[in-house]
Amino acid sequence: MDKNILIVGVGGQGTLLASVLLGNLALAKGYDVKLSEVHGMSQRGGDVVTHVKISDGKVKSPLIEKGEADMIIGFEKLEAYRWLPQLKKGGAMFVNTQEIFPMPVVMGQVEYPEDIDKMLADTAGSVKEFNAMKIASECGSTKAVNVVLLGAASEALPFEQEEWMKVIEENVKPKFVELNKNAFMMGQQA
Questions:
Q1: How far is residue 18's CA from residue 32's CA, in Å, rounded to a whole number?
Q2: What is the distance between the alpha carbons of residues 140 and 49, in angstroms, rounded to a whole number?
Q3: How many domains does the structure of the chain reveal?
Q4: pLDDT band of 55, cuts 50, 70, 90
Q5: I need a surface site. Which of 64, 110, 148, 182 has the fewest CB within 10 A?
Q6: What is the distance between the alpha carbons of residues 66 and 69, in angstroms, rounded to a whole number?
Q7: Other C-beta atoms within 10 Å of 35: how many?
Q8: Which residues lie closer than 8 Å to 81 by C-beta, 6 or more apart?
Q9: 56 vs 162: CA distance, rounded Å
Q10: Which has the closest alpha carbon to 150: 75, 58, 42?
């Protein structure tokens, strides 16, 4: 298996934890894994992207080049759209419908694009959009958006549910384990 996955969002959404969970699970299954985190002003809501490369061979470079991503997991719609050129033809997208306006939109300098859904659908092989924030809130914390999205994306990955549960137990603080397990399962159903 060779999988190139981009996890994109804005600071504070949990993109980095999502990449750690995915990377650790792949490592536990014997795959070679490279993670590369790129973040701007993440503490101020800036963009954050993590490149996750998984292979049963050897991963040579940690970065995913234009047109090489098998999957994009978008924690925010505009960020998913921004990284669309990285997606290979026929690639899959799992996108949270949440819209977080960047500063130029807040300041009225530009408008938030209205046709993002159409642009995603026209480019990707498959797009699954859903309100991950609402699902996470129903699970008990909006901070579980990241695990909800992983649950949804898990359908396109070769790992069993029990393996995901184990990696959550090993990487999440004990008091949040059950919440995150529930969020993952709710994401699978989204």
A1: 17
A2: 26
A3: 1
A4: very high
A5: 110
A6: 8
A7: 20
A8: 74, 113, 116, 119, 120
A9: 21
A10: 75
189 in any annotated domain: no
d(CA 182, CA 177) in angstroms, rounded, equals 9
Token couple for 139: 């699970």
In a domain, 185, yes or no: no
CATH value at residue 78: 3.40.920.10
User: What's the Cα-to-Cα distance from 188 to each of 122, 137, 143, rounded to whole Å?
Assistant: 24, 16, 17
- For the chain, give the mean pLDDT: 90
Contact predicate 145/190, CB 8 Å: no
**Cα–Cα distance, 166 to 105 (Å, whole number):** 41
- 45: containing domain: 2-132+152-159
**In this predicted model, what pLDDT tens digit does every residue of 66-122 receive, in sequence order?**
999 999 999 999 899 999 999 999 999 999 998 877 777 778 888 888 888 898 988
Tokens for 100? 């977080």
Q: pTM for the full model?
A: 0.91
